[in-house]
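Here comes an entry:

___
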Amino acid sequence: MADSTVQGFQTEKSVLHALEILEKLNVELIIIARGGGSKTDLFSLDNEAIARRIAGYKHPVWIGIGHETDISILDHVANQYFKTPTAVAEEIVARFIAMKRHIEEAENRFRSTWSYRFDIDRKWLEDAKTGIVQGTRKFLDTNKTYLLGYATMLSSKVQNRLSNEKSRIAISKKVLTTIPISLAKRANERLNERTERFAFSYKRQIADKQKDLLNLRKRFQLSRFLQRIQQEHECVGDWRTRFIQRFRSEIHICKQRISYLSSRFRLEPVIASIANEHIKLTNKGATIRAYDPSTSLKRGFSLVYTDKGDLVKSLSQIQVADVLETEFSDGHIVSTVNKTKRK
């Protein structure tokens, strides 16, 4: 809870200060309430600054100000507004009672559900205990019969497999005595066939290479080779001559350009340009000093500011009882406005 003034000139500052304090606390609801009164008494709460603060407030704000016929700007920006402070209290009590009833109903449902589930789980555990005691003996008897039958079946399968393997081994022995001889004969035949194909292919490739060598010897002539070398040498010489001529012409053009730039650059025009710029800067500095407010203050003028620091340029900015600060060249004074007079 934060106390604040809700009537008079200090209402805005007091209410804003209270809202600032409550915003820093971990509260769930802010209520601004004031009893009934005249229109002039409630006028201090019909405030724009307070309305903007409530509109951007991070906590919900309820408003209950005056009588049922009283409406302020705070009612339009609040999360919820009521005609009277009593209506605010009734809403809070009604919500508290509804929440309490909801919690009691939830507690009863939880207790009944928990008891029902507890009875079901207890019965299931008892049935499981009985089943474990009786089911274990039955399971052992059943598995004993099954294992005996499975052992008999496995023994018969092993005997059958052994007899089958003995028969297959006997057949394999007969096959191994006859197969190696036939395999050796087939391998020897394939080897002779490949030897003949390789010899024929080798002789044919040697004959083809000899023909190619004779053709290359016929095509190669020494005179044509020397003539081609002479032509390449002449081409290289021509290219070297053209490159040297082009390089010399580029050097000549660069020398002419450097000479032209050297003739254009002189020290006297640069010095004259710098002097002109210095004169312009001096004139601009004098103009800036003439427009400087401190210069006007030294000449006898003064500057008047409001208590908020705004420069007073018109009489419309000043009202009676305002605090003004007048600045001179050697100090300042603070004064209060007692009377205003227009021209």
Remarks:
- The two ends are 52 Å apart (CA to CA).
- The chain has eight helices and six strands.
- The helical segments are 11-23, 39-42, 48-55, 73-77, 85-219, 222-264, 267-291, 293-298.
- Residues 302-343 form one domain.
